[in-house]
Specification:
2 copies of one chain form a homodimer. With 126 residues, chain A is mainly α. The longest helix of chain A has 17 residues, at 74-90. Chain A has helices spanning 9-21, 26-32, 41-53, 74-90, 95-105, 109-124, and strands spanning 23-24, 57-62, 65-70. The termini of chain A are far apart. The model of chain A has no long low-confidence stretch (mean pLDDT 91). In chain A, helix 1 packs across helix 3 (41-53) and helix 2 packs across helix 3. Chain A has a 3-stranded antiparallel sheet. The first copy, chain A, contains 6 helices and 3 strands. At the A-B interface, helix 1, helix 4, helix 5 and helix 6 of A face helix 1, helix 4, helix 5 and helix 6 of B. The structure holds a DNA duplex (30 and 30 nucleotides).
Chain lengths: 126, 126
DNA sequence: TAGAATGGCCTACATTTGAACGCCACAGGA
DNA sequence: TCCTGTGGCGTTCAAATGTAGGCCATTCTA
């Protein structure tokens, strides 16, 4: 149960599936992979094993297969990854990140509304 | 001049300095590193060499030293990195990213104002 | 019930990253 | 002029990642 260093992308793809499914066997994860992204069963197995070794997943035996389930909350993992990115990319400052997301990736009207709503909410809580 | 897969974090730290300085020699980059982050001169040299090989920087000889300068615009690199993250973390959807940034990292009042301003600006352009 | 699948566990292996070394050339001060 | 420091270029080397293969036991299924 050694703690960690932010997950590499391949493992992230896999752990996200476990989060979505709640819990899953190797095969279930394999099958839940998006069509454009094929990974050998063994490869998925390896990633899940690594994720468990790193402490992100826990597993229990169920019949012949293992069922993996999250051990740390997604929000924590997301935070780790984002912290890294924000740091590396903008020296820790989030505003330029928003700036970039808004200007470069663009937002549609619905998204703008959602964002405003989040800000309102946030201010109301002050 | 091969294009390439998003930059690893160490190289990002280095290329950001070149962006900031406009152009720089190995030594200048070395010295511009934040105090908490020391890298051997040779290490910096290696990263700069790799960045050039990957096509992110260009260099010209100036006396005995090489001067490195950006070859792709920062915004493009940032985009590459962010696309990866948004994909890996949220399946390509940016709203959850904002959600996370706002709720988990928090924003101070000034930041909220800046964000609102950006949104206003964006809408005005519609 | 015998062979084909399936899954677990270990192992492998190339590539990429992180971080430097060593050797050699040149340039400037003692 | 000789030594020292600075840079370039090639190399190295371990750990992390990406992606499986091998072998073995257990299960289905024909």
């Amino acid at each position: 149960m050694p703690k960690k260093s932010a997950l590499p992308k391949s493992e992230l793809e896999v752990v996200r599936i476990v989060w979505d499914l709640g819990e899953a066997t190797v095969r279930q994860v394999s099958e839940a992979l998006p069509a454009e992204r094929t990974l050998d069963f063994k490869t998925v197995q390896t990633y899940l094993r690594r994720l468990e070794a790193k402490g992100y997943l826990r597993s229990r035996q169920q019949g012949r297969a293992k069922v993996y389930v999250a051990r740390v909350r997604p929000v924590q993992v997301v935070r780790e990854v984002l912290d890294q990115v924000v740091d590396r990319l903008f020296g820790g400052d989030t505003v330029p990140l928003f700036q970039h997301l808004i200007h470069d990736r663009g937002l549609n009207d619905a998204e703008i509304q959602q964002l405003r709503a989040m800000l309102d909410e946030l201010e109301r809580q002050r």
